[in-house]
Design a protein that fits this description.
58 residues, mainly beta, 2 strands
Length: 58
């Protein structure tokens, strides 16, 4: 392994089942397990066509 950042991304929800109209809160965690600082990170999270985004928070 060279000298670079190494990012691990996980997406988690406590919801196991949902029906139409339910809101689901996800937590996305990004960890840098490499030896170098990571900068200007972008993590796209695409919604399925039947989903809609409701104002989130960071």
């Amino acid at each position: 392994m060279g000298h670079e950042s190494l990012l691990r991304v996980t997406k988690h929800t406590s919801v196991r089942e949902a029906t139409v109209g339910d809101s689901i809160e996800y937590t996305i965690t990004i960890r840098n397990v490499g030896p170098i600082e990571a900068r200007q990170i972008r993590v796209p999270d695409l919604l399925q066509s039947a989903s809609s985004f409701i104002r989130g928070r960071v």
